[in-house]
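Quick one: structure tokens for this chain, please?
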Amino acid sequence: MLELIYPVSPAPLLRGGKRARAKEMLPVVDEAGNVRAQAAREFCHGGTKPLHPVVHLHVINREGDIYLQQRGPHKDLLPLKWDTAVGGHVAYGEYILEALYREAAEELQLHDFHPQWLCSYIFESQREKELVNVFATVGDYELHPDRDEVLDGRFWTPQEIESTLGTGLLTPNFESEYARIKDALQALL
């Protein structure tokens, strides 16, 4: 799924226990990417699990190493774990590629890149359910992690990643996604 399909008029608001409109609204979608409603981020992460879209970008250098970010200690989900180079929610009213470029700029100050779509899949944890849109880009980029967004970041060899799987250092989402796309990442070189 490469695009969200928004309704002509604003989608209904899922309020949960809160009556006021939240600062960060997310689209609630079906598996095909049709926007059915909108909800606050807190509502989407609060255990009710409405399906909402996110973007992931894997950054690969010319040697085949994969950039991972270490999530900040303030993150509400999986703080301090190593994860995909760029990852974030699609805001209500935003399209997939808009979110991808916005998140890459916010997290790594990465602006000039050509994303390759790899896949979309549904990831469900105890707190949320996401429609994950996975992209990759290959190049020798100069990356500058935003310390408000990311604690640390570095390139990992595929061998380092493989030896770290299952140790608790990586997010469960990254581990399952990596198993799904590792051959596609290497095919991009």
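DSSP finds four helices and ten strands in the chain.
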